[in-house]
Amino acid sequence: MSNLKKALFLGFLALLTASIVVLGNLVTGNPVVAQQGSLSFLTTKQPSLYYQAATELNEVLKNSGFNLAIKEGSPGSFQNLIEIGNGRSDMAFAQQDAFYLLRNTGDKDVAKLAENIQIFAPVSSETIHLIVNTSSGIKNFADLKGKNVAVGLENSGTYVSAIFLYQLHNLDVTQESLVPMDIKESIAKVSKGELDAAFYTAGLGTPLLKNISAKDGSTLKLLPINQQEFTIPQQSYAKGSVLYTPQIIPANIYPWQKTPVSTVASNSFIFVKRSLDPKQIYDLAKASYSRASQLRKKDAFWKLFSITEAKSPRFNGIDYHLGVKNFLKEISDRRR
């Protein structure tokens, strides 16, 4: 990537993140105020997978002494992180790529918010769905050049993933026709041919796509995303690590998708406010992980939520909250 293009990219992201900070209060309303003994949990609006998962977590915790004050309405991962960083929420789901962007944006005030955020637990691997109209003529990612493409709302995880993937394919986001838009609306427009394509980053089997019938989805298909087609190494952004890992979307997981499709995914986590009391977070970790199997049975979204995964080598170096570190250390000491 040329220095000029990288500067343009970072400047573009700085404008995005600065606008999110200014508009944050308008997006989520008043701060989520948790009652004593509870924690506020910001999520996207129904019927999203984030909202469903937050509700599932609250359900399994109901006899543990914890109650999650769920506040819906955030557009997604990036706004969730902004709200935790600003101290307006205690907990939220968010993608790895969104947190990377928050830490490395060109806006120093925004990047500083990341210092207020730590990780509670790995949860899932969120799939990047690239949905195109069957008559669009789009056969690979490079064909998106010059097309009208919906990229989710500006402060969502979908938006972040789309921007990064354009860059990894060496497509200049400042020159492309990227349309910020609600996911449900954008898919409807792709189906009608009013847009060429739409991105959607969500857990595999997301209800929004599952609820599209084979008939209603007859003009839709998923476009493959192949890491071998990246023209810029992921390490250019992630300092030696990768932002995205390969994933297969199985055939028939959505009624309108009859064949398997290769794509990429970003890990997602539960993030928490750094200033939360370590004893409270220790107790929450103990209560949550003891019910992890219940959550995994409820939905595949929770596939990474286990003590084994939390301690696995792929998550070495994760900045867990002190309360979580104490809990995981206690588990390790018991097993010696």
UniProtKB/TrEMBL annotation:
InterPro entries: TRAP_TAXI. PANTHER family: SLL1037 PROTEIN (PTHR42941:SF1). This is TAXI family TRAP transporter solute-binding subunit.
